[in-house]
């Protein structure tokens, strides 16, 4: 199959790029054509992209020397999924985009919609799952549900690459045992969700998963990038190191329009 070049692949409109964070067109390219995120090609056999947005990572994978044999991206924003279906899938039919129609007050409102849904994936079907800036916007109960889904859909030799906001609950003695998340927005708790690192490690272990690599945030308290695998993969799990990054601010993007109306 002929690889699409950056010039052949459409660029998502600015308002969609603004919703997912990086607006620079260069952030949607892959001029080296190497596997994304520094991964081995072996992990890119079958890819499940949780929170695919407007296709930033999908577009980069389409430009790789070796494309995934199968790619499924899903997202709760109907407009961005439709854009990917209409503008990216024609360049790579093995790339499929699915609307994950769950209720979200900003991106996919609807009181009649379910709060959570199974991932659009078969059991033990994917060698790689990506969840960038997803668990950072997933309330505690939903995070636990979707981590269970990870354990269901990931192959025994598979890998989850995901970002998390993490804190240490021992510094918050007023929190109950069943409370393991902090939220920054009273009106929209999904705006940013910070999970207790101990809770995350215990939850993963209970599911037969564990952290094998951890990239600490460049700014203290911001996103950790974690590599998570099944115990069946045979790679030793690690304990999360301390966050010793410099203090700073990285503000979440604020859309100038109602996100759910962007088509």
Description of the molecule:
- The chain is an alpha/beta fold and 263 residues long.
- 18% of the residues lie in helices and 22% in strands.
- It has one domain: Rossmann fold (3-Layer(aba) Sandwich), CATH 3.40.50.
- α2 links the parallel β1 (46-50) and β2 (70-75).
- The longest helix has 14 residues, at 140-153.
- The radius of gyration is 18 Å and the shape is globular.
- The protein starts with 13 loop residues before the first helix and ends in a 33-residue tail after the last strand.
Q: Which regions have little confidence, pLDDT < 50, spanning 5+ residues? A: none
- Integer count of domains: 1
Helix content: 10-25%
Q: At CATH's second level, what is the architecture?
A: 3-Layer(aba) Sandwich
What structural class do you assign from the helix and strand content?
Answer: alpha/beta
Total number of beta strands? 9
How far do the termini sit from each other?
30 Å
Specify the CATH class.
Answer: Alpha Beta
What percent of residues are in strands? 15-25%
Enumerate how many helices there are, as a single number: 5
Q: For this structure, what is the CATH homologous superfamily?
A: Vaccinia Virus protein VP39
Q: How would you describe the shape?
A: globular
Measured on Cα atoms, how large is the radius of gyration? 18 Å
* CATH topology title: Rossmann fold
| Biggest pleated-sheet summary | 9 strands, mixed
Overall average pLDDT: 94
- Which H/E pattern describes the elements? HEHEHEEHEEEHEE
In short:
With 263 residues, this protein is an alpha/beta fold. The protein has helices at residues 14-20, 56-62, 78-87, 140-153, 197-206; strands spanning 46-50, 70-75, 95-99, 126-131, 154-167, 181-183, 193-196, 209-215, 224-230.
